[in-house]
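Quick illustration, no need to memorize.
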Amino acid sequence: KVVSAFVETMNMNEEKELKIEKMESEYEETMNMKEEKELKVEKMESEFEETINMKQEKELKIEKMEGEYEETISMKEEKELKVEKMESEFEETINMKQEKELKIEKMESEYEETISMKEEKELKVEKMESEFEETINMKQEKELKV
């Protein structure tokens, strides 16, 4: 009886040890699974941070590109204004040149008129001189006749 009780106690002890070993094994398995899950969570967090960083980088690139685009547009507008100003100045210069040419033409015309009037006066003077000489000659002829 004592042997039977001893064997029974030994069997019970072995069963308890097997249960303990099984529980320890399950505990280790659970701990391993927990560590795997924690590693997966850390990996996912890292990937999430990476994605956020990439998104922020893209946003910064977009902002930089928008800034460069606005700068380019502004430079283009400045160049267009310069071109318009140059065109306006060119037109002004052309107008001034045309005005000068018209003044020169007017002055030439006035000069020609003045020359023409001078020539007319000279002709009148010559005619008057001729008439005066004729008158003198006629007077002398009369005096000679008398």
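The two ends are 212 Å apart (CA to CA).
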